[in-house]
Amino acid sequence: MATPGPVTPGASLEPSKAPVIEGFSPTLYSKPESFKEKFIRKVRENPMVPIGCLATATALGYGLYCFHKGHSRRSQLMMRTRIAAQGFTIAAVLVGLVVTSMKSRP
Q1: For residues 25 and 106, what is the distance between their CA atoms, to the nearest angstrom?
Q2: What 8-state DSSP symbol labels residue 16?
Q3: What is the pLDDT of residues 21-38, one digit of tens each?
Q4: Residue of 45, 44, 39, 48 lying closest to 91 (CA atoms)
Q5: Which of 27, 71, 92, 95 is in Cβ range 3.0-4.6 Å of 66 for a Cys bridge?
Q6: Do the domain assignments include residue 40?
Q7: Residue ranges of the alpha helices (H) in the chain?
Q8: Of 20, 102, 90, 6, whose CA–CA distance to 55 is shortest?
């Protein structure tokens, strides 16, 4: 079994800091983004995902409201609508991933 090479004293491993790799930049942006800036950027990149999430939450909320009021037929319709909205959201995420990967190719 081979012995490992010498350890350089300057290269300490600190779990609180990311390792430095030559020629690799972990972010394309020069300054760190705030939550609001990142959220706005992500919405602009793929606006269908937040629309799908909003539709899902709306259908769920209204469906639960109808269930509470005893409107079982409308509640069932809203739960089916919620499933369709979730499917739309997943499709939007997948399309966004494909588009982003196509953009990053040279």
Answers
A1: 18
A2: T
A3: 776 666 665 678 889 998
A4: 48
A5: 71
A6: yes
A7: 35-45, 48-69, 72-104
A8: 90
Task: Look at residue 2 and tell me if it is in a domain.
Answer: no
What pTM did the predictor assign?
0.64
**Residue indicated by tokens 């394309």:** 28
Reported confidence tier of residue 17, pLDDT bands at 50, 70, 90: confident
Number of structural domains, the chain?
Answer: 1
Tell me the one-letter amino acid at 105: R
Give per-residue pLDDT as tens, 74-105. 999 999 999 999 999 999 999 988 988 888 77
Helix axes 72-104, 48-69, angle to 10 degrees: 170
Tokens of 66: 């109808």
Distance from C-alpha of 32 to C-alpha of 26, rounded to nearest angstrom: 11
- Round to the nearest angstrom and report the end-to-end CA distance of the chain: 43
Look at residue 28 and tell me if it is in a domain: no
